[in-house]
Structures are given as C-alpha cells and as structure tokens.
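Section handout 9: paired folding examples.
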Amino acid sequence: ADDILGTLALKAAKKGLDVVIVTGDKDCGQLLNTNIRIYDPRKDLFTTVESFTEKKGIPPEKLIDLMGLWGDSSDNIPGVPGIGEKIGVELINKYGSLEKLLHHAAEIKGKRGEKLRECKELAVLSKELATIKTDVEVELELEKAEMGAPDTAVLREMFTDLGFKSLLRDLEPETARKEEARKYILVDTPDKFKAFIKTIPHEKHLAVDTETTSLDTMVADLVGISISTSPLSGYYLPFRSPEGENALGEEELKQIGSILENPEITKTGQNLKYDMKVLKRAGIELRGIVFDSLIASSIIMGHIRDHGIDTLAKRHLGIEKIPTTDLIGKGAKQVCMDTVPLKQICEYACEDADVALRLEEVLAKQLEKRNEKHLLDDIELPLSLVLAEMEYTGIRIDCKLLKKQSDEVAVVMDALEQQIYALAGHEFNVASPKQLSVILYEEMNLPVLKKTKTGASTDESVLTELAAQGHELPEAILSYRTYAKLKNTYLDALPELVNADTGRIHTTFSQTATATGRLSSRDPNLQNIPVRTEKGRAVRAAFIPENGWDLIAADYSQIELRIFAHFSMDETLLDAFAKGLDIHRVVAAELNDIDEEDVTSEQRSAAKAINFGIIYGKTPHGLSQETGMSLGQAKLFIDSYFERFPKVKDFIEDAKYKAHQDGFVQTIMGRRREIVELKSGNKMKIARAEREAVNTIMQGSAADLIKIAMINLARRMKDEGLKARMLLQIHDELVFESPKEETEALKEMIREEMEGAMNLKAPLMVNIGVGKNWLEAK
C-alpha cells in the first residue's frame, strides 16, 4: 500500500498537482518534496519538507538512512540494536548516508561501533525494507478517481468480515432484517406439544439449538430447545421459564429426546458440540448430525476469526439477528436466560435454529465448490463427536500436589524478588512494565531495543536479548515472570476449575480458532503447560487417572519433519526416517561433512534448530538469535543446508510460488488457508506470509493426521467395548486413562491407529508411555 501511495503521489506531483498524502505513518516522510505534503488527521497537522527537516534534524530523503539504523518495530524493520533516533540522526548527518557510515564503521569506537560492524547486513536490509517504491506499475487516471455511489453488497460483506458494526448500521440505517413472513411458534402447553410431536417425527431433516443458564456446559441447565424444519419457521420448547410458567416437563423432554436421538432424522446447527453436551446432561444423546455452520464457515474462511452465528447471518443471509444482550443484558446487570419472558426468548431461539438451517444451504454449496465437503463429513464432524465426549469426561487432578508446588514456587519467587531488588538498587513493583522500563532505560541506561506507543518495551523478546548481552536484571525478570505465569495460570488456577459434580476439570477444544486447522484448548488451556523448566514439567504430575487405572500418553515422533520429508521427497531425509536414524544427527553429519558417530552434541543441537527452523521459515537473523551464531554463520548454515538438501529448497520455493499464484495453500487433506498478506506491498509482511504458507502445509497436515487418528481410535475403542477413555489432545500428543487390564491392548491399538492414520513416504512413529500420572507417562 505504501508503494502504491508513493507511486501515485510522485506521478501526481510530476503532473504539477498539489499533492497531500493523508496518513499517520512516519515512513511516508521520505516522500515529501516541494509538491507533496503529508496530513495526519489524528493530529490535524500538515508536514512539509521544511517542518520535517526542522523537527527530525535531517531532510526527508535521509529518512530511509535513519530507519536503517533506527528500525521500526510496527513494520518489523529491525534496525541496529542499541541505536535510537537521536544517535541515528547524529551519525547520518556526520557521514551523509547509511552506506558511508557503514564504510567508516571501523573508525567508530565502543559498543556503538561494535554494533554497527556486527549488524551491517541488518542495517542495509532495514534501509531496503523502509524504502517506499515509487515505480509500481499503476496508472494514475484522475477522471476515474471521482467519487461514485457505494456498492452496498460488497461493503456489507467487507464490513461484516472486519467487524465494522457501526459502519454496517450506517450502510443500512433502516434495518437489515427484511423478513416479515417468519412463523415462530411457542410450544408451551401440553396441547401445543401434542400437535407439535405429531408432525415432527415425519421430518427428514431439522436444525436444533438449545438455550441454557450458562456458557459452561458442565454446569448449564437446559432452559429450552428450538427446532426449525423449513426456512423462516421454528418451534420453541421451554423447559424452564420465569417462575416455572408454562414450562414443559419430563415427559415432553423424553419425547423430544427420542426425536433428537433418532439418527434417521438428520440434524444441523451452529456449534452443535455445545448442544451435545448440554443435552447429554439432560439425558439425551444427539444423533444424526450432518452439518454444523460454525465448523463449515471455519473451513471455508479459516483466516477469519469470527464465525459466530450473528456474523454468519449478516455475511451470508444479509440479516441482522437479535443480539443476545437484548435478552439478558451485559456486565453486572446481566440476567439468566431462564428469566427472559417466553415470547421474547421464543423469537430469539427460533431465529437461531432458522438461521442455522438456512446457513447450511449456503455454506454447503461453498464447500462443494471448494472441494472441501469431505473435510466436514469425514474429519471435522466426526471429530466434534469425539471432542464432545472428551470434554464431557474431563480429567482428574491432584489438588494437594498443586498446592505443594504452588508453595514451592512462591518461595522461589520471593528469592528472585529480593535478587531483582538488589540488582535494581531499590524495591519496585516487579509486575509493572512501566516501573521496570524506568529502571532499565533511565536508571541503568540499558539500550532501547524496541519502542511501543507508551515508551520503551520490556517484553520477553527485548529482555531475552538484553540478558544475552550479559545484563543480569533482565534475566532475573524473565525467570520471575516464568514462575509467576506458572503459579497464576496453573498451580493456583486449576484447583479452582474442578467441577463440583464430576471432581474433574473440563477443558473446551476449539476446531475453529486456528488458521492451520490445529485444535486449541481453553478454560483451561492445557496445551500451553510449560515443558522447558523442571517446575513447569512437574505440573503434569498433578494430572491423574481414575483410581486404580493407568494414564497413557502417546505422541508422534518428529511428525512435522516426517511430513516435511514426505512433501519434499528428499532422499537423505526419507532414508534416515526409513532406517529409524536420529534425523538431527544425520543432518549435522551432512552439514559438517563428517561421520554420524563424530557429531558433537553442539552440532546436533544446531542441526535440530535448523531442521525445525527451515519448517518455520526462520531467517538468518532468527536462527542467530536462537542459537547464538553470528548473523554470517547463520546465513552460511542455512545456505549449506539448502546445498546439501536441494529438494527441500525446491519444495519451499514451489510452495511459495504456488501460494502467490493461488492466494492460498493446502494441507495434505486439502484444507485451504488463504494467505492474505502475500498481496501486501511490505516486504517484511510478504516474507512472513511466505513463512506462514510453508508452515501451514506442515502444521495443518499434522493437524489433519492426528484428527484422523483420534476419530479412528474413538471408533475402535467403542466397537471393541473398551472402558478406557481418550482425555486430552495436545497438538501431536494424545492422553488416555485405562483400566489396568486394558492397558496393553489399548497401547497396541493406539500404535496401530496413530501410525496407520496416513500412508506417508516417511514412516510414522509413536512414543507411548504409561504411568500413574501424566509426567510419569511421558
């Protein structure tokens, strides 16, 4: 966008026009000249060549030289660490340009000179990234720039996707709800229910939705059920209502339950995994599910985060649903759904079922058009049934052990706090970034590596780099934060989440939260339990099975590397996996041109970093930060890798090229991910998007793989009548609990199904452990 802006501005200026660029982006200062000014609408301020030069201390054309040193964290332009704007201006004014400065870098003494010499390549790259192109192939036809009438259909879809609710209201101020012919029926008496129950069993397909007292399915009571069998129609069956007025009873619930449990009557809905669990607690097993608009939307538009039914109704049907807050309010004044008057809740609930039914037709067509219907039918819908069962089952935890660990961590944190005070020279609020910033940059004069809107950053990446430079306080702060997160997020929080009825914690798995198709976990998030520290790993010891049972943990060995070898078809990698060799040792031997038995632990670690770094698209800068190599060494290491493994390089370049051509990438099962930023004019964003493209193929394919394994395992465990249960999925790992007499059979079943889930060119391998807790099973 900046490149197009710059090109158009210069074209217009050359035509003798008085040009104003409306932007708050400081990078555009380089475009200023006698015919071009900049207007910042937030500050109501015009900038000219003269005012820019007076404020910055350099002319506009020297801004890119300055940014080569200073960088820009908002655009991921690194600059030279430790050199800020003030020093940068002095150096550019003294030497005239970045290139001349770098040419004389040997003359500059102290850490400043050392950084300039060490980061020459980074500075040149930063200047290149900061330079706005003014020769983009775009024509300036002023007559075509005249304002015309808005295209409301295009704007509606765009505003919906971006969440611009006020703009949507401005676009259609009268109302977006245009249907007067809705037929929503309240079934609130035995006679009405008898009439309803006579007709509904003859339906072949229906949409279902539940209203409840809570978003937590493990404590929620069923308030009502809504059903829609044709567009613009619906029934609402209340089972709780204000003061019990006109609520149906156990007999009616049993009869509607027989409909919902009948697999011959197929079902659709929005986020049916929620409804499955709510109905299960009410004694009903929801069967015959053939569609879910939430999951379908996430398959079609994985790059969009909001797949809520209100958003989908607006995006695909052009209607604005009744907001939930209209019924129950929000904040401190929010009421429970069973207190809402029946007439009001009837319209709201029937609309939910009605919209879900209509969304099925629209989204099913899109899935067919994209050749992704199989993802819904064969993977995501069957998986939602497995996940509902896992969430409903939950997992036991040892609260006494967590309390003991919390007390131990508190002692460590107290000691760290005293150490931090000693290093800082006085006491302060260790949890306050603002106070820490003052100490680091004003009192201790440490170099400012990254700026934020409120000042100098104290985030993890900055503290890590400062610690690597030998500064003790940032290192101590990092340790303190690690322990504080462990204590607050897990040791203290998990016992509070134990369900009073089941004695277990019940996480929720999301199939729609990631662009790659990976599952995520929330309330609590069990996929982010720390594993790098001893005390972090120890948290897993608190996860325990049913009394007298075993806990089994099974995880894929180096799954993404095996998928990478499968796609790249590199003979060396495939041969190593086929022979069961240590892949990192094999790569280290290749890169260092030595025999495998001569590989040192340091060489293997470096090879491991690059093996995973190649998948995740690490740059020489990123690899040098992770391994401690110099930038030059890291670049040489990556170049050497691609020379030794040319098919890997070919695969990556082909994947990037295809992503640019198609605008998306696909996993091994054909799951698409649109890579929007490939169209960006910003080189850093394009590079990041290319890394995302390659990584999505690997990570998304690994997600497809374990989902298939979970579906097959759950089906087989049920078919063979096992009492064992699948409890957790943590990316490449599955956790089970099993009666001791079933453990050996289950282990064999797990190995067969996980290793046989897909037929890859690189054979799959699963590590399986058994123990009395999760840590021991690892």
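Moving on to protein 2 of 2.
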Amino acid sequence: MKAATQRTDISSGENELLKIQLAQNEAELAIINSVGEAMSKQLDIHTVTKIVGDKVKEIFQTEVTEILLLNHETNTIEIPYSYYKGYRTFEPFKLGEGLTSKVIETQKPLLLNSLDDQVKNGAIIQTDEDKTESYIGVPILFNERVLGVVSVQSYTKGVYTENNVKLLQTLSTNMGIALQNAKLFEESKKLLKETEQRTAELAVINSVQQGLVAEMDLQGIYDLVGNRLRDLFDAQVTGIYTFDLENDMEHFRYLFEDGERLYPEPRPLNEIRKWIINNASQLLVNEDADVKIYEITGERHTPVPGTRLPKSLLFVPLIVGNEVRGCVSLQNLDREHAFSDADVRLLTTLANSMSVALENARLFDETVHLLKQTEQRKAELAIINSVGEAMSKQLDVNTVTKIVGDKIKEIFKAEVTEILLLDREQELITVPYSYYKGYQIVEPFKLGSGLTSKVIKSRKPLLLLNFEEQEKFGALIDAGIGDADLTETYLGVPILFNDQILGVVSIQSYEKNAYDENNVRLLTTLSTNMGVTLQNAKLFEETKILLSEMQQRNTELGVINSVQEGLVKQVELQAIYDLVGDQIHKIFDTQVVAIASFNHDEKTETFNYLIEKGERFYPKGRKYDKLRDHLIKNRKLILINDNYIKAAKKYGMKVVEGTEMPKSLLFVPLVVGEVVKGYISLQNIDRENAFSESDVRLLTTLTNSMSVALENARLFDETTKLLEETKQQAIELKIINTVGEGLAKQMDFQSIIDLVGEKIREVFNAQVVSISTYEKEADEIHHRYVVEIDKRFYFDKPQKIDPDRKEIIDTKQPLIFGTAQEAIEHSGDEVVAGEMPESLHGCTDCTQSRSYRSHNSPRYS
C-alpha cells in the first residue's frame, strides 16, 4: 500500500513540474515570437539591437542590459545598446580581455552568480557600477560565426538560472538571423548607393563631355559641373577653384553660397590651398573648423569677402599628371559633421574624373581662345583702320570725338558711351561726346573724384564688372538717376599722347561682367589712335586760332590805318566819326553801331555816329544814364548778352527815339589818359548772346587803338575852329578898320557902303554881294550896293521889302540857305537881280551872298 501511494504522489509531482515547464516554454515561445515579429519588421542594425535590448531588459527585469557586436575587420567590440539607469553610450574597445571577449572566443554562454566568479573568469572592474553579482553572456551566432554578445547583469547574487540562459540563447539565435539580415540589407543599400553614386559620377562626366561636344567655353563647363555638384550634395557652399602656380594666385571659377552666385576677385594662395597642393590629398574638417585648420596649416581660415566662416569643410584636389591644378570644395555654414565618408569618396571620384575632362576643356578653350584672338586681331585691325581712316579726314576736335564715339558705340554695343577731355589749366573735365538713350549734353565738372578722375590720375585702364565694384572705386551717381538707370559694368581707358593724358574714353553696360580684357585691349588701341588724332586736331585748332588772331590784327590794323588816312584826308571831325563807324559796321556785320562822346561838365552824350539796320540816325544830345555813368567811373567795357529788360531797369536805359529795343549790347569806353571821352557800342535787336569773346576782344583792341586817334582828330578839329574864328575876327577887324578909315576921311554914306561892299567881295571871294538899307516908316528897302560876277547893279527906286529880309530884320538873326532849293522852299523864287544863287547868307546890316557851287560847299557864318 505504501509503495503504491508513494508512486501516486510522485506522479502528481511530476505532472505539476511538467505543467510548470510547459507554461514556461509557452511563455518563452511567446516572448521569442514577440521579439522575432518586432525584428522582422526592421532591417537596420541599430533598430534591431534597440528592439532586442529593450525586450531582453523587459523580460529579465535586469539592472544592466547590453548588446555588443564584433567588428571582424578592426577586431574591436562596438556597443550599439547599453542600458543602466538609462541608455548609455560607450566607445568601442579592443577584443582580448574581459567577459565579452571570453564569450566571443569560446562561442559559449557564460553564467556567473557572484562578483568573485566574474573576477575569476577575467571580468574587468573599473568602477563601482561594474561590480554586479550575477552575469549572463550569450554569444550571437549565425552559421557558426560569432556576431557579438548579449548580456544581462544584476547586483543580486544567484539571480539567473539555466532556464534564463536557455531563453537568452534562443533570443540571441533569432537576433543573429535578424542582425545578419540587417547587415545584408545595409550592404545592399550601400551597394545601391554606390551604384547611384557611380551613376551620378557618370552623369557628371557625361555632362562635361557633352559640354565639350557642344563647344561650350571653359567657364560654361565650370558652371555645368558646379551646378551638378550642387544637385548631388546638400552643401550650402559649392566652389571650384583653379591655381596659377607661377604667380601663386587662386581663381574662383564657380562659387555659390546660400543660393547666391558670387564672383570674387583672384587672390593669393592661402595656406589651405598650399597644403592641398603640397599633399595632393583631400582635406576634411568636420568640427572645430577654425582650430583644426590652424593645427593643419598654421593659418587661420580666411573666408572669401562677403561670405561666412564654415563649420564643416571638404576640399578635394583636381590633379592632372602629378600637378594639382585646382580643387573642388563643399562647405556647410551651420552644422558640424556635415560630410560623411560617402561624400568624401563620391567627391574624390568625381574630382578625379573631372580633372582630365576639365584639363581637356581648358586646352580646348585655349585653342579656341587663340583662334578667336587671331580672328579678333583681324577684326580689331579692320576697326582701327576704319576709325583711323575716318579720323584722318577730319581735324577739328568735335568732329573727331563724334566719329570715334559713334564707332565705339557701334563696335561694343554699349548702352553708355562717353569721351571726356581734360582741361589742365582749369582742372576741368569736359564731355564733348556722351551717348545714353540719345546724344546728351553734359556740363563740365571738376577733376577730383569719380571714375574718370581715377583713370586720369592712374593713367591706366579701369574695368569694373558690377555696380558694387563701381561704388567701392568712388563712382559718382547723379541725384536724378534711378536704380533702373544704374549700369553694372564700366570700362574706362586713358587717352594718351607722348605720355601726356588728354582724357578718357569709357563704355558702360547694364549687364554684369559685360566686358573682358580683350575689350580693354581693343579700346586701349582705339584710344591711342584717338590720342594722336586729337593732338593733331588740337594743333590744327591752335593754328586756326593763331590765324584768326592774325586776321583780327590785320583787321584792327586796317581800321587803324583807315582812321589815320581819315585824319590825313579829312579836315572835319564828323567825317572821321563817319569813316570809323562805317568801318566798324562793315567789320562786325552787326545791326547797330554807335559812337558817342561825353560832355562831363553838362553830363550829356552826343551821338557822333548811329546806324541801325542800314538806316542812319541823327539824334540830339541827351543826359547820360546810369550805364554811361558806370562806364565813365569804371572805365571798363559793359557786355549785356541776355535779359536786356533787367539790365535796362538796372541802368535806367532808354532807346533813342525812332530805334528799337536791343537784345544784346556791347559798350567799350574811349579812354584818353584816365578820362572816358566816349564809347563805341555794338547792338543786336533780334537775338541774345550775339557777341562772342572774339567780338569783345576785337572791338576792345580797335577802341583802344582809336581812342588816341579820335582824340587827336577832335583836338585838330578844335584847333581848326579856333583858327577859323581867329581868321574871321581878323576879317571883321579889317572891315571895321576900312569903315573907320572911310569915316575918318569924311566920306559920304554911299562911298562908305561902296568901300565896305568892295572889301567884303575881297575878303569872302563871293560872286554876289549886296548891301541894302531898310526904312521902317515906309517899310521899304533900298539896294545901296549890288554886284554879281563883277557887274554892278543900280536901283533908282526903293523896293518893297521881301520876306527873307523882313525875317532877318524882325528876328535880328542871320538867315542861311545851303541850296537854292532851300531858299525857294523857305520864301519863294524871287530874285532881285541876276540869277538864283546856290548858297545864301543874310543878316541885319550884313550881306547876301550867292554861290554856284554845289550844295555841299562850306557855309560862311
């Protein structure tokens, strides 16, 4: 009975144990399925290790959970998953010592339930955190190849059993499969990426080759390659640079930053470029860029002007043969570690492929360039000959500048073309030719600031490829010019002759980089030819000026000689004024010529000569105005070339009666010693600005020369008048003496009259002399003495008094007629005896004279 009972009890215990084991197996299977299902959805290694690690941590409720993977190539152990009071990150360590290395080398699980056991098995204890009591380490295997270790640890002794080891082994086996799949997936992705990279490389190379086939210029190929690099790499900065090793210079062939194309000037090679040249190797700086570059090159990184300092840099050399010809660069401005090994590899491959293609393109470009240069030289020679031929036919400066300006505008298709000449004496820049949307008139401006002044001072061409460069060099912008009118490209070339600068010829365009060194050379050649032509034109104009001055001097001399001849031939002053006035009117071909003299005592002016539009005027004298007073006080000429009405108000001027208001006036004083004796005036009635500097100079010279001559003529006239007065006084005295002599001899009345009549005939040499007496009461006239051409007439009876004699007796004033017609118009054609005289002079107690001379004969008073 006892034995049976005992067997029954044993069977019940075994059943319970089996149930527990079954339940545990089901739980383990559920866990394995859960982990497997999670792993099956992911393929990358980091995600797989994260899923398994978290599941193991959850299942075993351990304080420490780690997954460690073996890198067979480097023999290092990496730790993609580590959890202790949170996720931890550890650096890889070498395979060799420690529990993990032991599990890897034995490829068997390791269960240790105390710290002492761990130390005996080679555990490396570095900190208190490493002093766990329980440890399980299970190898991760795939096809008998160890991939790594999964381990759990606890700070409590004897926590883990063989069941835990078995469960962890099962999980690690599944993990081995998942990790291998993930590894294969990553290798496939890597191969795919490499294939894509190769495809991209091939596309770039094909693009370069297509550029060569399409006969693109070298810059076009740089642009094409640069744009492709920008598409391939997510870099904020992409640059292609070439090195001029002979001159230690770097040229920026392509540079983009933050989507903007930059065009920096060439600059000396810095230490980074020298390092690349010397090492012929790529340079990757992914962190602490400024410090690392300084450590590598010994120089702080200097960014291109207008750009920012990068945080990540990658430079790859462009090598042809054994020589570094340039480099390609990718840069990130905002973050470190921007460029991966794959980026380095791809850019290096591309650079190697591009080097040869770009070198071929460069050689092809040089060949094309040489061919173009040859063709351009022919074109330039044709242009120069064309311009030279046109210039050789002209000699005046304005025509030369017009011909050259139009040719340059046509050749360069420039929106703005200007020729500017330097006036050294005035330090002014004149603009004889300016074309912008039509020919423009530009006022002269001072030499000093601005691009033209810079070219003049440097005596060298100035090429500026954008507006910012123009601003830096001091371009002057007119206030009225809007942004739309601002040009981008400027080229200014000095005009030289025998090392003397004559001016500047400039062209401008609204496009950036519109001109190059070829344009500079051609414009320089044209300006050199222009310099010679301008100098010839200048000499020609100077010769014309000298010739004109000589002609003026001859004219002045001719007028002066005419005046002198007038003095010799003419006795009367008015005749000399007439002669001088007619000569000036003829020389200047002006509408009005006036010569006036001043009476300073009475403050009046007398018009000695006045002609307007061919009509002669004889105005009376008048008080002089403020203008005449100003002329007298200042003894300087007065020129009024515009706004006559304002000048008339200022000087109180009034026109001579019967004449018109002028629009241009020139007054030049006639100065003798320190006294203004009068003036000569030219006037134009129809237009302003009628009198040039040449007119002023010529009239001034003539006036200065004539002042003394006219004064001498005036003095001669006064002397002649005084002489005539003296002679007349002598005649009067002689007549008085004759009458006195007759009275002294007690001659009768008729005898005295006869004596006086004979004496008058003798003195005046008159053809007719008559002496008559008037009886007031009878109002009759007695002709006491009448002689006509040596024949004596006698009148027995008195006659009724005629109107002329009546007028003489009533007014007690002489009556003079210059011609018979004047006498007839005055008093009729009555003749007492003989013929009608041509000239008559009658006075109370005086004579009547008849003359058959012309009406221009002198009148006797």
